[in-house]
Amino acid sequence: MRRSHEPIFWSLFGAGGMLSALVGPALILITGVLAPLAIVLGPDALGYANMLVFVHHPLGKLAVLALISLFLYHGCHRMLHSLHDLGMHAGRGAAVFFYGFATAGSLVCAALLFTIGF
Amino acid sequence: MTDTTPTPAAAAPRTIEIECLRYDPEQDSAPHFQSWQVPFDDDTSVLQGLQYIKDHLDGSLTFRWSCRMAICGSCGKMINGVPQLSCHAFLRDYWPNKVRVEPLANFAIVRDLVVDQNEFLDKLESVQPWMQPCEKLNVADGPQRQTPAQLDQYYQFSQCINCLLCYAACPQVGLKPEFIGPAALALMHRYNADSRDRGWEARAEVANAEEGVWGCTLVGYCSEVCPKGVDPAHAINQNKVNSTMDYFGVRKLLAPKGGAR
Amino acid sequence: METINSDIVIVGGGGAGLRAAIAVQEADPRLKVALVSKVVPMRSHTVAAEGGSAGVIRDDDSLDNHFDDTVSGGDWLCDQDVVRYFVERCTEEMVRLEHWGCPWSRKDDGSINVRFFGGMKVQRTWFAADKTGFHMLHTLFQTSMQFPGIQRFDEFFVAELLVEDGRVQGVLAIEIATGKFFLFRAKAVILATGGAGRVYSQNTNAGIVTGDGMGLAYRHGVALRDMEFVQYHPTALPGTGILITEGCRGEGAILTNKNGYRYLQDYGLGPLDPWPRPKAMELGPRDRLSQAFWHEERKGNTIATRHGSAVNLDLRHLGAKKIHERLPLITEVAKTFAGIDPVHEPIPVRPAVHYTMGGIATNGRTETTLPGLYAAGECSSVGIHGANRLGSNSLSEIVVFGRAAGENAAAYVRTQSAAAPASLERQAQAAAARLEALHQHERGERVAVLREAMGECMEKNVGIYREESGLAEACSTLAELRTRWRAGIKLDDRSRAFNTEWLSAIELGSMLEVAETMAHSARERRESRGAHVRLDQYAERDDENFLVHTLAQRRGDDAPAITQQPVVITTSAPRTRSYGGAGTKAILT
Amino acid sequence: MSRYKPTLKTYRRPMAGWWTKNPFYVLYMIREGSAVLLAAYALVLLVGLARLAQGEAAYEAWRAALASPAAIAFHVVAAIVVAYHSVTWFGVMPKTAPKLPFPARLVTIGGIAAAVVVSIALVVVIAGATR
Ligand SMILES: Cc1cc2nc3c(=O)[nH]c(=O)nc-3n(C[C@H](O)[C@H](O)[C@H](O)COP(=O)(O)OP(=O)(O)OC[C@H]3O[C@@H](n4cnc5c(N)ncnc54)[C@H](O)[C@@H]3O)c2cc1C
Ligand code: SF4
Ligand code: F3S
Ligand code: FES
Hints:
Oligomer: heterotetramer
Number of helices of chain A: 4
Strand order of the largest sheet of chain B: 2-1-5-3-4
CATH architecture of chain A: Up-down Bundle
Radius of gyration of chain A: 17 Å
Number of strands of chain A: 0
Strand content of chain A: under 5%
Number of strands of chain B: 7
CATH topology of chain A: 3 helical TM bundles of succinate and fumarate reductases
Number of helices of chain B: 11
Radius of gyration of chain B: 22 Å
Structural class of chain B: alpha+beta
Distance between the termini of chain A: 48 Å
Structural class of chain A: mainly alpha
Largest sheet of chain A: none
Helix content of chain B: 25-40%
CATH topology of the largest domain in chain B: Fumarate Reductase Iron-sulfur Protein, Chain B, domain 2
CATH class of chain A: Mainly Alpha
Shape of chain B: elongated
CATH superfamily of chain A: Fumarate reductase/succinate dehydrogenase, transmembrane subunit
Number of domains of chain B: 2
CATH architecture of the largest domain in chain B: Orthogonal Bundle
Shape of chain A: elongated
Order of helices and strands of chain A: HHHH
Largest sheet of chain B: 5 strands, mixed
Number of domains of chain A: 1
Helix content of chain A: over 70%
Bound molecules: flavin-adenine dinucleotide, iron/sulfur cluster, FE3-S4 cluster, FE2/S2 (inorganic) cluster
CATH superfamily of the largest domain in chain B: Alpha-helical ferredoxin
Largest interface: B-C, 69 and 75 residues
Order of helices and strands of chain B: HEEHEEEEEHHHHHHHHH
């Protein structure tokens, strides 16, 4: 039997799953509901200035990269397996597509964080 | 004290409809259902219902059974869509509705309620489920020591009766027939987790494969239906961690095994 | 017909068969073993054994003690040379199982824990919680997988032995899934087919325990020995016969009648110990306990349940913690099958047939009188159980004598050459034709009708107590049932694929013959000994005339010929069997 | 060991629609489906980051879009589904842990409690830091 390379992706999936389980619902509420509707938070909580300060800080950069990249890996991993669960055996191509997508997203994210500067 | 005087309700004869999936490879191209009315009592198992049919109504109805006490693992069926031991499911719990009995899901049907367990038997063997000690043991040296705490590490996983309910519960078994599956992987873990065993390396090829622990997507239904509390989902998924550590070459550092002596 | 060639065919994948297969491989890995079983090995009935397996291990115990308990438990009908061989090897086999991974229960320091068991006066019963047989069977099954020389034929029903030149040279089997016949050629055959408890209607045995191997050997002129000795287990659930292990009583459970009275003290099993206490009169031998029940029932002291009368097995004083820790399976069984939580209520129990002491007559080396044919395990009568088997001796027996059969057969086949295939083929064809005829039969009675008639006849006449009139009735009823079986069984199932109705008809044939040997052997034993107790003028043990084995030999369609065979007595002369205060003082720890 | 392997004519039942046949499977599919919303949310954030890099005007346009009813609805649904993911995640977490000396349920309860605490802390911190 061939050794599976799943440990790489499973680790990323697991990290994303853990992160999203801990902060996912709150973060979605904050950026998608509370901030836009200014509930609990101030109207400019996610304003341009605030966000710029945040992503200029190395820890802020790391947080953004971790969130976006790991969420993508987590999501793509599950979507790949769901295809199989639904009876669509797309084979290696599907794996390349999904993990490629998550990797590309992560790289774009890193590049953006870099362009925004320190 | 027990009051075993029959209550009027228990004494009244009741019947229930049992509907079985039937398939005769010599006659049929596809399975079909057939029903019977079966008298039952408060302690009549579904298996006893099937036996009643076979003895009195239709001798050709075919199913496996043996111990009728939930330990031999022969009599698993889909009962109203749920994998169960038919000797351990009771007609009283389904009445007055009918009860539908089908062969275990995810297996090919050989005849009526009998499924093909050949692939499973090969999978069971593929995990090398025998003791692989670090050195050859001599009977003259007597029994090895193993504390109750060490026993506890694997005891739960040694409870498997190979009833296949977990295979019928696991969609990955149906979707990917090569998947080694819950019971066999739990058995592998049973030996790996035994303080007397040193066989991790020998079994690693299977564990680390796509067909091994990585075939599981943690549906978790296997553990739900297991009649013996084996929790195969636990056995498999903690080995995803082991397999990952093995992949990155850190298993030996992080998971040293307690010795038997 | 497909032919399979091997050196040794082992019929039966229970504890005895698996141990034999491993022994052959350890003796000589070049030998090819065909392990043929009508169920996948881990479904074998060994799986149901709960209590434990005997083997001397404590400092306060000795081989002599185990020997004495076994011989007196067997009411001196044991072959003492064989018992000696047996007790010397039990512990070794338990250790071997430990090395193979059997999860024996342990003490806190990690050493093996042993428990009390009925008739064993010292703690020497190894146990794996209350699933000892399950763990032994799965350990043996899994261990056997590493030997490339063992080829398994799962779900193959062995229907005939093939004898050529006066020695066994193979078997004919049906591949159950397809109904196809297979000819297995071999230089030796080991029968390890288990007991025959299913000939009784109230029994603790699995559905597969139908005495097939006994029937096979018997039809080929091998005697069935001591068949009158059938053990009742005193504590089974009324109706289903599901066993409540003796381990319960080993842990301190007591038996009470409907007045809450520990009635065993009235039957010479006392004294009434202050309790709770680890070992009590409830641990007397099974036959005595079952008989006491019968008397209580007569006196009207039993409790009426929907499935017949019962007494109470009371565990409540042990407390929830100990019950859950030591007896988890029994707790589960009582809850599910009887709707009772033993922590809060006593469990209703009654005697049911449990074990066949007799079987295929072998010498101490597991050899039968038919060259090349060996027998081990419950299907055999190797000589250790005598008139009554002690609890936890039979799990030890299957590994000690399973191994012996494997080793002896391995040594034997090295001296033999294979048979001429043509004549074996002819024999196999003839046997297949007979089975085929059974399959094709369109008229006759249903399997269940004859089976139930047999079970009830045995229960009524060849039960806990026997007497001449009942035994005579049993003999004639069984002869009649055999005639009806020969006249034809009506099968609804015309398919060949997994035709279990056909197989039950074949099994029924064996069961009727086995039942007949039981009834006739019992009738000829005009004394009471061990599990065979008569109510007529033969209520006493009679060492003068009956300190002998009974042999039942087949005579075609006629009743079996019953003869006697001397018992081997080496060191222990017959004494009165006594337990409790009157017997050897129990060593309590 | 070798095992005699018969060739049998058997019937294999189709798998199509398997996940509709048992409520347990339906819940499993919902759990797995949560990943779609999570990934979509990651993309929303990524777009936000890109807009941030493009300057204030672009970023504010993105913020305005987030306030649209459709966006709000999406986020409400996503938050619920991802919350379901959280519960199931901690539910199965003990399965990946070694055998524990305490009841597995404690891991689940602890995980969910941690998620609740972290969530509240997140809101409080952001609210405090951006006041
Ligand atoms: C409920 C229960 C509890 C028990 N508890 C204890 C205990 O605590 N301690 C103890 O010492 N003993 C106990 N016993 C007794 C003991 O379990 C048995 O005597 C022993 O397991 C028998 O083992 P075996 O290998 O001889 O036969 P089995 O395990 O019965 O195996 C028989 C094998 O033969 C095969 N076979 C039979 N006929 C055919 C055929 N025609 N063709 C092919 N294969 C065939 C079967 O498939 C099976 O594999 C208990 C028995 C029962 C019923
Ligand atoms: S793990 Fe449980 S469900 Fe699966 S085969 Fe074993 S006992 Fe049966
Ligand atoms: S159901 Fe199947 S997917 Fe895994 S957790 Fe159990 S083996
Ligand atoms: S008949 Fe043995 S498990 Fe049901």
